[in-house]
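[step 3/7] fold_predict: job queued, chain A
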Amino acid sequence: MSHAGLGEWHPFAPAALHALLGAQSARWWIAGGQALELFAGRSWREHADLDAGILRADQPRVFAALEGWELHAAEDAELRLLRPGEVAPSSANSIWCRRGAHEPWGFELLLDAHDGDDWVFRRDAAVRMPLRELVRLGPGGCPYLRPEVQLLYKAKQRRAKDEADFAAVAPLLDPDPRRWLRAALARIHPSHPWLARPELAR
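[step 4/7] structure written:
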């Protein structure tokens, strides 16, 4: 969702979000371009925001760690303030978070689905992965989304930053993650140009 006209962002650093959410019991992970940079161990571009993922079912537990924060469900390019104890509607896939009404946005929570012990891709439930394998740990134990899963999310829009992320990360994938991404792309986006790229053909 575009940030235009929705307020200023001062995005958290991944380590700062880890300090905020690390003590609560629900799964969470850094997502977006910064997850890919945690995997690669370097940065190659600036970031206007910070994305983090949680399971939709875990909203109450995560929100308990954000008591006093403003949480806004994002849907159709609009934001709606959630009341204390309220969770996002099923039609909203993300929540913007800030410390108060006059504070900048700090991070966005992306809501993911699961089926038992499996993470489920919300655009096609046939694409899934065991939850125990979904997240890797970066410096200081900061959790981040596996790179092949993050690249699958990025494949939909193919913005300049998504192409830069693919170019930086795809050559670093081990054979099994590369095969998983290739198979998922072939199912979701069968004519996607990335499928012809040598980084995925190896």
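[step 5/7] annotate
The radius of gyration is 17 Å.
The longest strand covers residues 105-115.
exit 0
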